[in-house]
Amino acid sequence: MQPPLTGGPAPENPLVSLIDARMHFGAVRALDGVSLTISPGECLGLIGHNGAGKSTAVNVINGGLTPTGGAVEYTLPDGTRATGTVAARAAGIRSVFQELSLCPNLTVEENLRIPQHDLSGPGWRRTARKRIARALDEVFPGHRIRPGMTVGGLTLAERQMVEIATGFAEATHPARLVILDEPTSSLDASIARQLLDYVRGFCARGGAVIFISHMLGEVFEVATRIDVMKDGKITQSRPVAAFTQQGLIDAMGHVASAEAASAIRQDAATRIGAEVLRTDEGLSARRGEIVGLAGLAGHGQAEALARFFMARSSGPRHSSDPQVVFVAGDRTRDGVMPLWSILRNLTLTHLPALSRRGIVDRAAEKALGAEWKKRIGIRTDDILNPILSLSGGNQQKVLFARSLASSAPIVVMDDPMRGVDVGTKREAYDMIRVEAASGRTFLWYSTETEEICQCDRVFVFRNGRISAELTGDEINEENILAASFEMQESAA
């Protein structure tokens, strides 16, 4: 048994202890001997590339998976030690997953009833309404979400806010350890800031958090310790002060280019051609141009992309000669076919081109899948495995490959890097630059300023309208934030 790999001495009564935990799925070793402890007051930053074993580790910690080897122990509020799913719940272990688990046909308050089993009998709805409203107010002051709203009518950012608030909400067993898996992937900077502030306060009051994120700046802001995972193992574990951001990237196995933010615009003068699109709201793009859509989440960017995509993708010729393709950020709702294989999800939009007289050329389909599995680094031992066997980030890679493998001259991307690790992001940026150099046009909405700064031109949205158009050196975080709030201030 390997010794616990932690950033300091193991306390006498940690909330959770993993002891040489192993999780094997056939030949795949998702966890390969992981030992760690999480104590009151700690915020553990759990870092690693997609497929490193992070999601498996947290599913073992929260009792969702029983390890095939090793042990998981919990300290209950009365100080006793226990194991098993019931013990995990009694110990106050909560999870907020990257793949949102809310039921879209239920209201916000009705969704709270699913994890909180004590919400039953007369008056349960009033109790649920009070609990979720209080949690939303505490974590996200100034939100506009009402407990009676149907989840399906909320934006992706609002759904993520509800999911997070559910994780911290009052219950019979109070939250003592909350696992946050990519919690800010759909949140704009101001809302993400509210969450980070709350996490720090929660830990200061004696709670604990496992914070999983590919946004390394956020990890450095809230974590007290960082554990790096690779190939199902913890390879490094240190106090956060012992890491630098570049050192952490190196520990993960990828080195980011210092010139990434400007490299994509260096050849803009020779790459960009004639205008290929213009919309009623003033959005435009030229051949070979990478156009970013920025601003606070939920201010019309996704809707503008959807209107353009629907206008250009209708008609009988679209399937055989597509003019535009779409990379979804909300893969559960808009991208992944959950019952299909990785290969079929990847080649879905290409089936007409791969068919002869209505019959799919399976050899050509497999060749296409194998090519893009290698090019974009999809982590699987068999591309015929179910799509849901992949981590969330690897599922997103499949959607990215599906679009880039097409012949469409325009690519519409709705926050496509949600939950994708930093190394894969760099590879994707390089791939976008290569595709743009060949004449392909990109419309790229992102909630991450770093990604927006990869663009040639940026339209900032506020209240469903374009509030600013930025080009070249004007594209920076300060100008984007100023334009995001400009119209609101003018109206005040």
Automatic annotation (TrEMBL):
Location of the ABC transporter domain: 16-256, 263-488
UniProt-listed Pfam families: ABC_tran
Family: Belongs to the ABC transporter superfamily.
The protein, known as: Ribose import ATP-binding protein RbsA
Alphabetized GO MF terms: ATP binding
Gene3D superfamilies recorded: P-loop containing nucleotide triphosphate hydrolases (3.40.50.300)
Keywords, alphabetical: ATP-binding, Nucleotide-binding, Repeat, Sugar transport, Transport
